[in-house]
Design goal:
Chain lengths: 339, 115
């Protein structure tokens, strides 16, 4: 019945259902706009499930990520969520790190260990980050109380001032409101880039928490700034995979139609969800992605793809519901003020 | 009472210069670290090489034929075309969606950052 939505893909030279492409694009767009990630880790297995030719999956995915990131970054910028200066430094640090990570994988490939090592590091990272973020969410009240007590003690002079890593040159990022050592910035982005190159992923899901926990950005700015970096990675990926002839442009356009609408919804939802709420949902999402990688490690590839796709769809529903609740609340407040 | 000798102007300048030199050298050392990454030989990424592949153009609609013929004749133009189309289509849809969201009252402006 759904065959009427089949379209011909001129580069992959086959028919494919346009509704599936739009739906995948939409769900990844919502996630990307809300979490500040590219979402290749959802798209590739999802395309795989529906029989999209895998030779074109990565290139097509990167092409649509580029288009979607333009939409999402522009909107985040409008909301004051993009720290361009920090974003540029993140690109510089990441490029160096990605190359170093890729070299490490080449070494592991030569000694025949690349596959399992990369997959176990990936699992450790996803589960570790997810569990840490949930712990951080669960203990936020206690930590806020402890920090307030320490600040009071410092003010009273009973506690020595906190020592910070402040090796010059220091850098100031007015949008994020932070002053930090150049070396911390470069070290963090080198490290996230390294992991990205090592794991062969875009790295948005590593950079976003790093911006929050290691650099000290507010969550919404971490999301917007990460998308700014994803935009450049997507543009490079789009061009380089295009040169290699591995992009089906028609499939990418259909995905982009869904992703652009989804990204607008995801970005708007950031307005209604507090920073810790975004962190909690992100933690749940990456733990489910970790489950998917674990299933793949034990040769349950089909189940792994379904887990990540269902997780993405479920999270989309949660984000849209949160957006709708926040929007209704805002409308009610406006009406209340009007009377 | 302890006597604390006063540093002369020259001593202060020497101490400051040494401090700056120490920071400079430490910066140089940290800058050199990533260079280790290039010590190993670069390797090929796991990308399918389809640079010489051609696709069928006959019987395709105008838009599909346009993309397919550039794909066959010049991969650089095809790559630039893909990048431009993605940017332009993304921007157009963003403007339309923005207008729709504004019409239903979901417009966005600068937000306060609450954690």
């Amino acid at each position: 019945m759904l065959d009427i939505f089949n379209v011909y893909l001129p580069i992959a030279e086959r028919d494919f259902n346009a509704l599936i492409l739009i739906a995948i694009g939409f769900s990844v767009g919502v996630l990307g706009g809300f979490f500040g990630v590219g979402g290749a880790w959802v798209v590739t297995p999802a395309l795989n499930i529906f029989g999209f030719p895998m030779a074109y999956a990565i290139g097509t995915d990167l092409a649509h990520i580029f288009g979607k990131s333009i939409v999402a970054t522009a909107k985040h910028r409008k909301m004051g969520n993009v720290d361009i200066k920090l974003g540029i430094w993140s690109i510089i640090g990441s490029v160096i790190g990605v190359e170093a990570g890729a070299q490490s994988v080449m070494f592991l490939t030569r000694v025949g260990l690349a596959g399992p090592v990369v997959r176990y590091v990936y699992m450790f990272l996803l589960f570790g980050l997810g569990i840490y973020m949930i712990y951080d969410y669960a203990t936020k009240e206690q930590r806020a109380a402890a920090a307030a007590a320490k600040a009071a003690a410092r003010a009273a002079g009973t506690l020595p001032p906190r020592k910070a890593w402040n090796l010059p040159p220091m850098m100031h990022f007015p949008t994020s409101g932070i002053t930090i050592s150049f070396w911390t910035v470069m070290g963090v982005f080198f490290f996230t880039g390294y992991l990205s190159g090592f794991l062969g992923v875009g790295g948005g899901f590593i950079r976003m928490p790093a911006l929050i926990y290691l650099i000290g950005c507010p969550t919404a700015i971490a999301v917007g700034t990460d998308l700014f970096s994803v935009l450049f990675a997507g543009a490079y990926g789009c061009l380089t995979y295009g040169l290699k002839g591995a992009v089906d442009i028609v499939a990418a356009i259909y995905m982009l139609v869904g992703a652009s609408v989804g990204a607008q919804i995801g970005v708007t939802a950031v307005k209604y969800v507090r920073g810790y709420g975004i962190r909690l949902l992100f933690a749940i999402m990456i733990i489910l992605a970790g489950v998917s990688v674990a299933l793949k490690q034990f040769n349950f590839s089909y189940a792994a793809a379904w887990v990540v796709m269902c997780a993405a769809l479920g999270m989309c529903v949660v984000i849209i519901i949160r957006l709708w609740i926040g929007f209704k609340k805002e409308q009610a407040e406006k009406l209340g003020l009007g009377h | 009472m302890h006597y604390k000798p006063k540093n002369s102007g020259v001593e202060v300048i020497v101490v400051k210069t040494l401090k700056k030199l120490r920071i400079f050298l430490f910066n140089l050392l940290l800058l050199a670290l990533p260079a280790l990454a290039w010590a190993a030989e670069p390797g090929d990424k796991d990308v399918p090489d389809m640079a010489t592949r051609t696709v069928k153009v006959e019987g395709l609609g105008a838009i599909n034929a346009f993309f397919a013929s550039w794909y066959n004749s010049n991969k650089l133009v095809f790559a630039i075309l893909v990048t431009l189309v993605m940017g332009i289509v993304g921007a157009i849809i963003a403007i339309i969606t923005d207008l729709i969201l504004k019409a239903i009252g979901m417009e966005v402006s600068k937000i306060e950052h609450h954690e």
